[in-house]
Amino acid sequence: MNEQTPHTPSRRKVLRTTAAAAGTGLGIGALGSLNAEAAAAAPATSPEAATAATPSGTTRRRLGPTMAGVPFPGRSTVRVALVGLGNRGNGMIGLYLALPWVRVVAVCDPVREKAERASAKVVAAGQPAPAVYTKGEEDYKNLCARSDVDFVHVATPWDSHHAIARAAMLGGKHVGVECPVAMTLDELWDLVDLSEQTRRHCMQLENCCYGRNEMRVLRMAHAGKFGTLLHGAGAYNHDLRALMFSPTYYEGPWRRLWHTRLRGDLYPNHGFGPVANYMDINRGDRAVSISSFGTPALGLAEYREENMPAGDPSFKETYIGSDRTISLVQTAQGRVIRLEHDVSTPHPYSRVNSLGGTRGVFEDYPARIYLEPDHKDDQWGDFSTYAGEFDHWLWKDHANPPGGHGGMDYIMVYRLMQCMRLGLPPDFDVYDAATWTAPVPLSHASIKAKGAPQEIPDFTRGEWRKARSGVDSVKPA
Q1: Rounded CA gap, 108 and 111, in Å?
Q2: How far, in Å, are 23, 39, 185 from residue 26 at the CA level?
Q3: Residue of 156, 225, 322, 406 with fewest CB within 10 Å of its CB?
Q4: How confident is the model at residue 58 (pLDDT cuts 50, 70, 90)?
Q5: Closest among 469, 467, 426 to 71, alpha carbons compared
Q6: How many Cα neighbours within 13 Å face the side chain of 32?
Q7: In the chain, what is the straight-line distance between the N-terminal and C-terminal CA atoms, in Å?
Q8: How far apart are CA 260 and CA 12, in angstroms?
Q9: Residue 442 to residue 242: CA distance in whole angstroms
Q10: pLDDT digit string (tens) for 373-416?
Q11: Residue 86 in contact with residue 57, Cβ under 8 Å?
Protein backbone atom coordinates (compact mmCIF):
# COMPACT_ATOMS: atom_id res chain seq x y z
CA MET A 1 0.00 0.00 0.00
CA ASN A 2 1.30 3.36 -0.97
CA GLU A 3 0.89 6.07 1.69
CA GLN A 4 2.37 9.27 0.32
CA THR A 5 3.91 12.33 1.86
CA PRO A 6 1.75 15.27 2.91
CA HIS A 7 2.23 18.40 0.87
CA THR A 8 1.49 22.08 0.96
CA PRO A 9 -1.30 23.92 -0.89
CA SER A 10 1.03 24.71 -3.79
CA ARG A 11 1.45 21.00 -4.45
CA ARG A 12 -2.30 20.54 -4.31
CA LYS A 13 -2.56 23.25 -6.93
CA VAL A 14 -0.19 21.26 -9.11
CA LEU A 15 -2.37 18.21 -8.54
CA ARG A 16 -5.49 20.02 -9.65
CA THR A 17 -3.77 21.30 -12.78
CA THR A 18 -2.32 17.92 -13.70
CA ALA A 19 -5.48 16.01 -12.95
CA ALA A 20 -7.68 18.42 -14.87
CA ALA A 21 -5.59 17.81 -17.95
CA ALA A 22 -5.82 14.08 -17.24
CA GLY A 23 -9.52 13.99 -18.00
CA THR A 24 -9.07 14.85 -21.65
CA GLY A 25 -7.81 11.53 -23.00
CA LEU A 26 -4.71 9.43 -23.55
CA GLY A 27 -2.25 12.30 -23.72
CA ILE A 28 -3.47 13.46 -20.31
CA GLY A 29 -1.38 16.17 -18.78
CA ALA A 30 1.74 15.25 -20.71
CA LEU A 31 4.62 16.54 -18.65
CA GLY A 32 7.05 14.06 -20.10
CA SER A 33 7.99 15.03 -23.64
CA LEU A 34 11.67 14.36 -24.07
CA ASN A 35 13.44 17.69 -23.77
CA ALA A 36 16.87 19.14 -24.30
CA GLU A 37 17.84 18.45 -20.69
CA ALA A 38 17.27 14.73 -21.17
CA ALA A 39 19.02 14.73 -24.51
CA ALA A 40 22.06 16.39 -22.99
CA ALA A 41 22.29 13.63 -20.37
CA ALA A 42 21.99 10.84 -22.93
CA PRO A 43 24.68 8.86 -24.71
CA ALA A 44 25.57 10.12 -28.15
CA THR A 45 22.65 9.89 -30.57
CA SER A 46 21.83 11.60 -33.82
CA PRO A 47 20.36 15.10 -33.53
CA GLU A 48 17.29 13.85 -35.36
CA ALA A 49 16.72 11.07 -32.82
CA ALA A 50 17.30 13.36 -29.87
CA THR A 51 14.80 15.99 -30.98
CA ALA A 52 12.20 14.01 -32.92
CA ALA A 53 8.62 14.43 -31.78
CA THR A 54 7.29 11.02 -30.75
CA PRO A 55 3.74 9.74 -30.27
CA SER A 56 2.28 8.12 -27.17
CA GLY A 57 1.72 4.78 -28.90
CA THR A 58 3.82 1.73 -29.60
CA THR A 59 6.15 3.06 -32.32
CA ARG A 60 8.34 5.47 -30.39
CA ARG A 61 11.94 5.42 -31.52
CA ARG A 62 14.48 4.08 -29.07
CA LEU A 63 16.90 6.79 -27.95
CA GLY A 64 19.33 4.53 -26.09
CA PRO A 65 20.16 0.84 -25.64
CA THR A 66 17.71 -1.32 -23.73
CA MET A 67 17.88 -1.43 -19.93
CA ALA A 68 16.56 -5.00 -19.84
CA GLY A 69 19.03 -7.15 -17.94
CA VAL A 70 21.46 -4.29 -17.30
CA PRO A 71 23.23 -4.81 -13.94
CA PHE A 72 23.85 -2.16 -11.34
CA PRO A 73 27.49 -1.25 -10.81
CA GLY A 74 28.56 -3.15 -7.70
CA ARG A 75 29.51 -1.19 -4.59
CA SER A 76 30.36 -1.98 -0.99
CA THR A 77 27.99 0.65 0.41
CA VAL A 78 24.69 1.77 -1.11
CA ARG A 79 23.91 5.43 -0.42
CA VAL A 80 20.19 6.15 -0.30
CA ALA A 81 18.11 9.32 -0.28
CA LEU A 82 14.39 9.48 0.46
CA VAL A 83 12.04 12.07 -1.04
CA GLY A 84 8.67 12.22 0.69
CA LEU A 85 8.52 11.44 4.41
CA GLY A 86 4.83 11.04 5.16
CA ASN A 87 3.13 7.76 6.02
CA ARG A 88 4.95 5.65 3.47
CA GLY A 89 8.33 7.32 3.30
CA ASN A 90 8.72 7.58 7.05
CA GLY A 91 7.80 3.92 7.41
CA MET A 92 10.46 2.80 4.94
CA ILE A 93 13.48 4.48 6.54
CA GLY A 94 13.88 1.81 9.20
CA LEU A 95 14.09 -0.93 6.58
CA TYR A 96 17.06 0.74 4.89
CA LEU A 97 18.67 1.36 8.27
CA ALA A 98 18.35 -2.35 9.10
CA LEU A 99 20.85 -3.21 6.34
CA PRO A 100 24.48 -2.75 7.41
CA TRP A 101 25.71 -1.95 3.90
CA VAL A 102 23.18 0.88 3.36
CA ARG A 103 23.61 4.52 4.40
CA VAL A 104 20.77 7.04 4.40
CA VAL A 105 22.60 10.19 3.33
CA ALA A 106 19.76 12.63 2.52
CA VAL A 107 16.07 13.16 3.19
CA CYS A 108 13.60 15.59 1.63
CA ASP A 109 10.12 16.85 2.42
CA PRO A 110 8.64 20.36 2.28
CA VAL A 111 7.20 19.76 5.76
CA ARG A 112 10.23 20.38 7.96
CA GLU A 113 8.90 18.41 10.94
CA LYS A 114 8.68 15.27 8.85
CA ALA A 115 12.22 15.65 7.53
CA GLU A 116 13.56 16.28 11.02
CA ARG A 117 11.77 13.21 12.34
CA ALA A 118 13.35 11.13 9.59
CA SER A 119 16.79 12.59 10.31
CA ALA A 120 16.43 11.67 13.97
CA LYS A 121 15.72 8.06 13.02
CA VAL A 122 18.93 7.92 11.01
CA VAL A 123 20.99 9.34 13.87
CA ALA A 124 19.33 6.98 16.37
CA ALA A 125 20.42 4.05 14.19
CA GLY A 126 24.05 5.12 14.60
CA GLN A 127 24.55 6.73 11.20
CA PRO A 128 25.70 10.30 10.57
CA ALA A 129 22.93 12.87 10.32
CA PRO A 130 21.64 13.00 6.74
CA ALA A 131 21.43 16.16 4.68
CA VAL A 132 17.95 17.64 5.04
CA TYR A 133 16.05 19.31 2.18
CA THR A 134 12.93 21.23 3.18
CA LYS A 135 13.06 24.45 1.15
CA GLY A 136 9.89 24.25 -0.86
CA GLU A 137 8.24 21.89 -3.27
CA GLU A 138 11.23 21.49 -5.60
CA ASP A 139 14.10 21.12 -3.16
CA TYR A 140 14.31 17.50 -4.33
CA LYS A 141 16.16 18.88 -7.35
CA ASN A 142 19.02 19.95 -5.09
CA LEU A 143 19.05 16.54 -3.45
CA CYS A 144 19.19 14.84 -6.85
CA ALA A 145 22.20 16.98 -7.80
CA ARG A 146 24.31 15.56 -4.96
CA SER A 147 27.32 13.44 -5.88
CA ASP A 148 27.05 11.05 -2.92
CA VAL A 149 23.66 9.42 -3.66
CA ASP A 150 23.28 6.10 -5.50
CA PHE A 151 19.53 5.53 -5.16
CA VAL A 152 16.52 7.81 -4.63
CA HIS A 153 13.33 6.44 -3.06
CA VAL A 154 10.25 8.49 -4.08
CA ALA A 155 7.24 8.37 -1.75
CA THR A 156 5.35 11.56 -2.63
CA PRO A 157 1.84 12.19 -4.03
CA TRP A 158 1.22 10.68 -7.43
CA ASP A 159 1.28 13.90 -9.44
CA SER A 160 4.96 14.48 -8.54
CA HIS A 161 6.29 10.96 -9.21
CA HIS A 162 7.28 11.57 -12.81
CA ALA A 163 9.06 14.87 -12.17
CA ILE A 164 11.09 13.53 -9.24
CA ALA A 165 12.05 10.30 -11.04
CA ARG A 166 13.15 12.40 -14.02
CA ALA A 167 15.28 14.67 -11.81
CA ALA A 168 16.89 11.66 -10.13
CA MET A 169 17.92 10.02 -13.41
CA LEU A 170 19.17 13.28 -14.88
CA GLY A 171 21.20 13.67 -11.68
CA GLY A 172 22.84 10.30 -12.29
CA LYS A 173 20.85 8.33 -9.70
CA HIS A 174 18.91 5.10 -9.90
CA VAL A 175 15.38 5.67 -8.69
CA GLY A 176 12.55 3.68 -7.17
CA VAL A 177 9.04 5.11 -7.16
CA GLU A 178 6.01 4.15 -5.10
CA CYS A 179 2.86 3.20 -7.02
CA PRO A 180 1.94 4.37 -9.58
CA VAL A 181 5.17 5.44 -11.27
CA ALA A 182 3.39 8.16 -13.33
CA MET A 183 -0.12 9.10 -14.42
CA THR A 184 -0.02 9.46 -18.24
CA LEU A 185 1.27 7.52 -21.21
CA ASP A 186 3.53 10.38 -22.21
CA GLU A 187 5.07 10.39 -18.75
CA LEU A 188 5.58 6.62 -18.88
CA TRP A 189 7.31 6.83 -22.25
CA ASP A 190 9.45 9.68 -20.98
CA LEU A 191 10.69 7.59 -18.05
CA VAL A 192 11.46 4.67 -20.39
CA ASP A 193 13.36 6.94 -22.78
CA LEU A 194 15.25 8.67 -19.98
CA SER A 195 16.22 5.41 -18.28
CA GLU A 196 17.71 4.19 -21.56
CA GLN A 197 19.49 7.46 -22.23
CA THR A 198 20.96 8.02 -18.78
CA ARG A 199 21.68 4.30 -18.16
CA ARG A 200 19.94 4.59 -14.80
CA HIS A 201 17.27 2.21 -13.59
CA CYS A 202 13.78 3.54 -12.83
CA MET A 203 11.75 0.97 -10.92
CA GLN A 204 8.24 0.67 -9.57
CA LEU A 205 8.63 -0.18 -5.89
CA GLU A 206 5.98 -2.89 -6.04
CA ASN A 207 6.13 -4.57 -2.65
CA CYS A 208 3.32 -7.04 -3.41
CA CYS A 209 5.61 -8.84 -5.86
CA TYR A 210 7.58 -9.87 -2.77
CA GLY A 211 4.68 -11.23 -0.72
CA ARG A 212 5.29 -14.77 0.51
CA ASN A 213 2.21 -16.19 -1.24
CA GLU A 214 3.01 -14.33 -4.45
CA MET A 215 6.59 -15.59 -4.53
CA ARG A 216 5.51 -19.17 -3.81
CA VAL A 217 2.93 -19.10 -6.61
CA LEU A 218 5.56 -17.61 -8.92
CA ARG A 219 7.99 -20.46 -8.30
CA MET A 220 5.22 -23.05 -8.67
CA ALA A 221 4.14 -21.50 -11.97
CA HIS A 222 7.70 -21.56 -13.30
CA ALA A 223 8.04 -25.18 -12.17
CA GLY A 224 5.00 -26.13 -14.28
CA LYS A 225 2.68 -26.99 -11.38
CA PHE A 226 -0.19 -25.09 -13.01
CA GLY A 227 0.46 -26.58 -16.45
CA THR A 228 0.15 -24.11 -19.31
CA LEU A 229 -0.93 -20.78 -17.84
CA LEU A 230 -4.28 -19.46 -19.05
CA HIS A 231 -5.59 -16.72 -16.78
CA GLY A 232 -4.84 -14.68 -13.69
CA ALA A 233 -6.37 -11.93 -11.60
CA GLY A 234 -5.21 -9.17 -9.29
CA ALA A 235 -6.85 -6.29 -7.50
CA TYR A 236 -6.69 -3.42 -5.10
CA ASN A 237 -9.98 -3.70 -3.23
CA HIS A 238 -9.40 -1.67 -0.07
CA ASP A 239 -11.96 0.53 1.64
CA LEU A 240 -10.16 3.88 1.88
CA ARG A 241 -13.19 6.12 2.41
CA ALA A 242 -12.36 7.09 5.99
CA LEU A 243 -8.71 7.74 5.14
CA MET A 244 -9.50 9.81 2.05
CA PHE A 245 -11.82 12.05 4.06
CA SER A 246 -9.56 12.17 7.13
CA PRO A 247 -8.20 15.67 7.86
CA THR A 248 -4.89 14.25 9.10
CA TYR A 249 -4.05 10.99 7.31
CA TYR A 250 -3.23 12.64 3.98
CA GLU A 251 -2.12 16.24 3.79
CA GLY A 252 -5.08 17.68 1.95
CA PRO A 253 -7.43 15.96 -0.48
CA TRP A 254 -4.92 15.06 -3.22
CA ARG A 255 -5.77 11.35 -3.35
CA ARG A 256 -9.53 11.89 -3.20
CA LEU A 257 -9.33 14.52 -5.94
CA TRP A 258 -8.17 11.93 -8.46
CA HIS A 259 -11.69 10.48 -8.15
CA THR A 260 -13.00 13.77 -9.58
CA ARG A 261 -10.75 13.49 -12.64
CA LEU A 262 -10.36 9.87 -13.79
CA ARG A 263 -12.95 7.12 -14.15
CA GLY A 264 -10.63 4.13 -14.37
CA ASP A 265 -8.26 2.04 -12.26
CA LEU A 266 -6.13 4.51 -10.27
CA TYR A 267 -3.96 1.89 -8.58
CA PRO A 268 -3.44 -1.24 -10.73
CA ASN A 269 0.11 -2.11 -9.73
CA HIS A 270 -0.50 -4.24 -6.63
CA GLY A 271 -2.70 -6.61 -8.60
CA PHE A 272 -1.04 -6.43 -11.99
CA GLY A 273 2.60 -6.78 -10.90
CA PRO A 274 2.45 -10.25 -9.32
CA VAL A 275 0.32 -11.76 -12.10
CA ALA A 276 2.59 -10.22 -14.73
CA ASN A 277 5.49 -11.97 -13.00
CA TYR A 278 3.66 -15.33 -13.02
CA MET A 279 3.15 -15.00 -16.78
CA ASP A 280 6.63 -13.62 -17.56
CA ILE A 281 5.19 -10.41 -19.00
CA ASN A 282 8.05 -8.54 -20.72
CA ARG A 283 10.07 -11.78 -20.45
CA GLY A 284 8.44 -13.99 -23.07
CA ASP A 285 4.91 -12.62 -23.16
CA ARG A 286 3.46 -9.12 -23.42
CA ALA A 287 0.32 -7.28 -22.34
CA VAL A 288 -1.18 -6.04 -25.61
CA SER A 289 -4.62 -4.56 -24.83
CA ILE A 290 -6.98 -3.63 -22.03
CA SER A 291 -10.77 -3.38 -21.91
CA SER A 292 -12.26 -1.72 -18.84
CA PHE A 293 -15.71 -1.26 -17.37
CA GLY A 294 -16.77 0.84 -14.41
CA THR A 295 -19.75 1.12 -12.11
CA PRO A 296 -21.42 4.40 -11.20
CA ALA A 297 -19.48 6.61 -8.78
CA LEU A 298 -21.67 6.65 -5.66
CA GLY A 299 -19.62 5.47 -2.69
CA LEU A 300 -17.61 8.59 -1.88
CA ALA A 301 -20.60 10.91 -2.16
CA GLU A 302 -22.70 8.71 0.12
CA TYR A 303 -19.90 8.48 2.67
CA ARG A 304 -19.48 12.26 2.57
CA GLU A 305 -23.19 12.81 3.11
CA GLU A 306 -23.24 10.51 6.14
CA ASN A 307 -19.94 11.46 7.76
CA MET A 308 -18.78 14.96 6.84
CA PRO A 309 -20.12 18.15 8.46
CA ALA A 310 -22.23 20.53 6.46
CA GLY A 311 -20.09 23.09 4.68
CA ASP A 312 -17.06 20.83 4.41
CA PRO A 313 -15.06 21.76 1.27
CA SER A 314 -15.49 18.21 -0.04
CA PHE A 315 -19.14 18.98 -0.87
CA LYS A 316 -17.85 21.04 -3.80
CA GLU A 317 -16.33 17.90 -5.34
CA THR A 318 -18.06 15.81 -8.01
CA TYR A 319 -16.83 12.24 -8.13
CA ILE A 320 -16.60 10.42 -11.46
CA GLY A 321 -14.18 7.63 -10.52
CA SER A 322 -15.97 4.29 -10.82
CA ASP A 323 -16.58 2.66 -7.46
CA ARG A 324 -15.56 -0.70 -8.93
CA THR A 325 -13.42 -0.90 -12.05
CA ILE A 326 -12.99 -4.25 -13.80
CA SER A 327 -10.45 -4.59 -16.60
CA LEU A 328 -9.47 -7.47 -18.85
CA VAL A 329 -5.90 -7.48 -20.15
CA GLN A 330 -5.06 -9.69 -23.15
CA THR A 331 -1.51 -10.94 -23.65
CA ALA A 332 0.37 -11.79 -26.82
CA GLN A 333 0.06 -15.50 -25.97
CA GLY A 334 -3.70 -15.19 -25.59
CA ARG A 335 -3.83 -15.25 -21.80
CA VAL A 336 -6.30 -13.09 -19.88
CA ILE A 337 -5.62 -11.05 -16.74
CA ARG A 338 -8.51 -9.57 -14.76
CA LEU A 339 -7.80 -6.41 -12.75
CA GLU A 340 -10.11 -4.84 -10.17
CA HIS A 341 -10.00 -1.55 -8.27
CA ASP A 342 -12.38 -0.47 -5.50
CA VAL A 343 -11.48 1.95 -2.70
CA SER A 344 -14.90 3.62 -2.42
CA THR A 345 -17.25 0.92 -1.05
CA PRO A 346 -17.34 -1.41 1.98
CA HIS A 347 -15.17 -4.43 1.27
CA PRO A 348 -12.69 -6.56 3.24
CA TYR A 349 -9.17 -6.03 1.95
CA SER A 350 -8.33 -8.20 -1.05
CA ARG A 351 -5.79 -8.26 -3.85
CA VAL A 352 -7.57 -11.32 -5.33
CA ASN A 353 -4.24 -12.81 -6.51
CA SER A 354 -5.36 -15.72 -8.64
CA LEU A 355 -3.63 -17.89 -11.24
CA GLY A 356 -5.06 -20.68 -13.38
CA GLY A 357 -3.70 -23.10 -15.94
CA THR A 358 -4.41 -26.43 -17.58
CA ARG A 359 -3.53 -28.36 -14.39
CA GLY A 360 -5.26 -26.27 -11.75
CA VAL A 361 -5.78 -22.96 -10.00
CA PHE A 362 -4.71 -20.87 -7.00
CA GLU A 363 -6.93 -18.27 -5.36
CA ASP A 364 -5.96 -15.99 -2.48
CA TYR A 365 -7.96 -14.21 0.27
CA PRO A 366 -8.07 -16.83 1.72
CA ALA A 367 -5.25 -18.83 0.12
CA ARG A 368 -6.47 -22.08 -1.45
CA ILE A 369 -5.29 -24.29 -4.28
CA TYR A 370 -6.46 -27.10 -6.52
CA LEU A 371 -3.91 -28.90 -8.69
CA GLU A 372 -3.99 -32.17 -10.54
CA PRO A 373 -2.89 -34.79 -9.61
CA ASP A 374 -2.35 -33.48 -6.06
CA HIS A 375 -6.04 -32.85 -5.37
CA LYS A 376 -9.30 -34.52 -6.34
CA ASP A 377 -13.05 -34.46 -5.89
CA ASP A 378 -13.19 -30.71 -6.52
CA GLN A 379 -12.02 -29.96 -2.97
CA TRP A 380 -9.59 -27.12 -2.28
CA GLY A 381 -6.17 -28.16 -1.01
CA ASP A 382 -3.90 -26.70 1.68
CA PHE A 383 -1.57 -24.14 0.08
CA SER A 384 0.83 -24.30 3.03
CA THR A 385 1.89 -27.83 2.09
CA TYR A 386 3.89 -26.31 -0.79
CA ALA A 387 5.92 -24.01 1.44
CA GLY A 388 8.92 -26.27 1.96
CA GLU A 389 9.51 -26.98 -1.71
CA PHE A 390 8.42 -23.73 -3.30
CA ASP A 391 8.95 -20.85 -0.88
CA HIS A 392 11.40 -18.41 -2.43
CA TRP A 393 14.91 -18.35 -0.97
CA LEU A 394 14.33 -14.80 0.24
CA TRP A 395 11.53 -16.01 2.50
CA LYS A 396 13.57 -18.98 3.66
CA ASP A 397 16.46 -16.69 4.59
CA HIS A 398 14.14 -14.10 6.20
CA ALA A 399 11.35 -16.13 7.74
CA ASN A 400 10.22 -13.33 10.08
CA PRO A 401 11.13 -10.09 8.31
CA PRO A 402 10.60 -6.73 10.03
CA GLY A 403 8.46 -3.94 8.71
CA GLY A 404 4.95 -3.52 7.38
CA HIS A 405 2.64 -5.47 5.12
CA GLY A 406 3.63 -8.85 6.49
CA GLY A 407 7.31 -8.36 5.78
CA MET A 408 7.07 -7.84 2.02
CA ASP A 409 8.36 -4.26 2.35
CA TYR A 410 11.56 -5.49 3.96
CA ILE A 411 12.02 -8.29 1.42
CA MET A 412 11.67 -5.75 -1.40
CA VAL A 413 14.19 -3.34 0.13
CA TYR A 414 16.64 -6.11 1.04
CA ARG A 415 16.58 -7.59 -2.46
CA LEU A 416 16.93 -4.23 -4.23
CA MET A 417 19.81 -3.15 -2.04
CA GLN A 418 21.40 -6.60 -2.47
CA CYS A 419 21.25 -6.24 -6.26
CA MET A 420 22.86 -2.80 -6.03
CA ARG A 421 25.58 -4.00 -3.68
CA LEU A 422 26.48 -7.13 -5.68
CA GLY A 423 26.16 -5.58 -9.14
CA LEU A 424 23.14 -7.62 -10.27
CA PRO A 425 20.29 -6.56 -12.58
CA PRO A 426 17.17 -5.46 -10.68
CA ASP A 427 14.33 -7.96 -10.47
CA PHE A 428 12.13 -5.54 -12.43
CA ASP A 429 12.84 -2.42 -14.44
CA VAL A 430 11.39 0.62 -16.15
CA TYR A 431 9.54 -1.52 -18.71
CA ASP A 432 7.71 -3.33 -15.93
CA ALA A 433 6.98 -0.02 -14.18
CA ALA A 434 5.45 1.41 -17.36
CA THR A 435 3.46 -1.74 -18.17
CA TRP A 436 2.02 -2.14 -14.66
CA THR A 437 1.02 1.55 -14.59
CA ALA A 438 -0.40 1.80 -18.12
CA PRO A 439 -3.90 0.75 -16.94
CA VAL A 440 -4.24 4.10 -15.12
CA PRO A 441 -4.74 6.19 -18.29
CA LEU A 442 -5.88 3.31 -20.51
CA SER A 443 -8.69 2.06 -18.25
CA HIS A 444 -10.02 5.62 -18.11
CA ALA A 445 -9.97 5.80 -21.90
CA SER A 446 -11.62 2.38 -22.28
CA ILE A 447 -14.44 3.20 -19.87
CA LYS A 448 -15.07 6.46 -21.72
CA ALA A 449 -15.23 4.39 -24.93
CA LYS A 450 -17.77 1.98 -23.40
CA GLY A 451 -15.24 -0.78 -22.88
CA ALA A 452 -13.50 -0.58 -26.25
CA PRO A 453 -10.04 -2.21 -26.10
CA GLN A 454 -7.08 0.14 -25.76
CA GLU A 455 -3.65 -0.84 -27.04
CA ILE A 456 -0.98 -1.21 -24.36
CA PRO A 457 2.31 0.11 -25.78
CA ASP A 458 5.26 -2.21 -26.13
CA PHE A 459 7.53 -0.24 -23.86
CA THR A 460 10.28 -2.84 -24.41
CA ARG A 461 10.28 -2.22 -28.18
CA GLY A 462 10.46 -5.94 -28.94
CA GLU A 463 12.72 -7.04 -26.07
CA TRP A 464 9.77 -8.83 -24.43
CA ARG A 465 10.31 -11.79 -26.76
CA LYS A 466 13.56 -12.64 -24.97
CA ALA A 467 13.40 -14.75 -21.82
CA ARG A 468 15.27 -13.26 -18.87
CA SER A 469 15.29 -13.45 -15.11
CA GLY A 470 12.96 -11.55 -12.83
CA VAL A 471 11.64 -11.87 -9.30
CA ASP A 472 12.06 -15.65 -9.42
CA SER A 473 15.76 -15.12 -8.89
CA VAL A 474 18.64 -17.44 -8.04
CA LYS A 475 20.22 -16.90 -4.63
CA PRO A 476 23.56 -15.12 -5.06
CA ALA A 477 26.61 -17.06 -3.98
Answers
A1: 9
A2: 9, 24, 7
A3: 406
A4: low
A5: 426
A6: 29
A7: 32
A8: 14
A9: 28
A10: 999 999 999 999 999 999 999 999 999 999 888 999 999 999 99
A11: no
